[in-house]
């Protein structure tokens, strides 16, 4: 290639940058145009209805009419947004859910996923403190659980010693499980996050979270 070979590369870079900028500006331009059109329409439609009732000095202030028209459009758009979000949105969401729940097999899966999301959503993100390893349902069988509380209430006090509360979920639906109380020394705290522990349980053990090096794991076991 000749020394001019870098030129196409520069042109291509310029073209890509221009198209990227146009894609960013286009929605803004369309929004401003639509907003201005609506304001002109509102101002031109309603202004003749009440313009003659105002004092003559106010009739000669175009900026006042633009402000009133803009305010009316903002209130109208806000009202439509509220209506679509809180009324129509809930209505169509309910219709869609009922339609999905009537589909064989898919409805069961949808209800299970919805129950999981509701139980372990953002509202309950602090429900579990830590992922732990316990011997359950008998000695020699290790199970992943979630530490839910370290407070010493009546059951813990009656059991004696420092007793912690652990929730052991079932697989693959972690919304059900077992609430057990174990002595502190029988609970092994893991380093994995609550999210990784939940992934491992829901997948039935197919998803294994990342683990430190074998040397470090050996040191931890020792």
Considering the chains and any ligands shown, give keywords for the structure.
14% strand; five-stranded antiparallel β-sheet; single chain; 222 residues; alpha+beta; 7 helices
Short description:
By secondary structure, the chain is α+β, with helices and mostly antiparallel strands.
Protein described:
By secondary structure, the protein is an alpha+beta fold. It has two domains: 6-96, no CATH class; 125-221, no CATH class. It has helices at residues 6-50, 56-59, 62-101, 106-119, 154-159, 194-202, 214-221; strands at 130-135, 142-149, 163-169, 177-183, 188-189. The chain has a five-stranded antiparallel β-sheet. α1 packs across α3. It is elongated, with a radius of gyration of 32 Å.
* C-alpha geometry: elongated
Count of discrete domains: 2
Rg, Cα atoms, Å:
32 Å
Q: What are the secondary-structure elements, in order, as H or E?
A: HHHHEEHEEEHH
Estimate what percentage of residues fall within beta strands.
5-15%
How many helical stretches? 7
Q: Report strand order across the widest sheet.
A: 4-3-2-1-5
Count of distinct strands: 5
List the helices and strands and how they pair.
Layout: H1 6-50, H2 56-59, H3 62-101, H4 106-119, E1 130-135, E2 142-149, H5 154-159, E3 163-169, E4 177-183, E5 188-189, H6 194-202, H7 214-221
Antiparallel strand pairs: 1-2, 1-5, 2-3, 3-4
């Amino acid at each position: 290639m000749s020394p001019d070979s870098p030129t196409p590369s520069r042109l291509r870079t310029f073209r890509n940058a221009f198209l990227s900028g146009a894609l960013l500006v286009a929605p803004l331009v369309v929004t401003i145009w639509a907003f201005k059109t609506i304001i002109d329409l509102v101002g031109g439609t309603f202004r003749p209805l009440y313009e003659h009732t105002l004092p003559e000095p106010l009739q000669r202030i175009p900026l006042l009419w633009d402000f009133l028209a803009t305010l009316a459009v903002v209130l109208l758009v806000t009202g439509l947004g509220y209506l679509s979000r809180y009324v129509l949105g809930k209505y169509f969401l309910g219709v869609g859910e009922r339609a999905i729940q009537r589909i064989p097999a898919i409805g069961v899966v949808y209800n299970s996923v919805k129950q999981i999301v509701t139980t372990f959503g953002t509202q309950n993100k602090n429900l579990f403190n830590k992922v732990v390893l316990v011997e359950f349902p008998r000695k020699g069988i290790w199970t992943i659980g979630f530490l839910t509380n370290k407070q010493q209430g009546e059951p813990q006090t009656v059991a004696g010693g420092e007793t912690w509360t652990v929730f052991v979920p079932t697989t693959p639906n972690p919304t059900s499980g077992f609430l057990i109380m174990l002595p502190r020394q029988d609970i092994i705290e893991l380093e994995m996050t609550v999210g990784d522990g939940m992934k491992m349980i829901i997948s039935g053990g197919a998803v294994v979270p990342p683990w430190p090096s074998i040397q470090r794991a050996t040191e931890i076991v020792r």
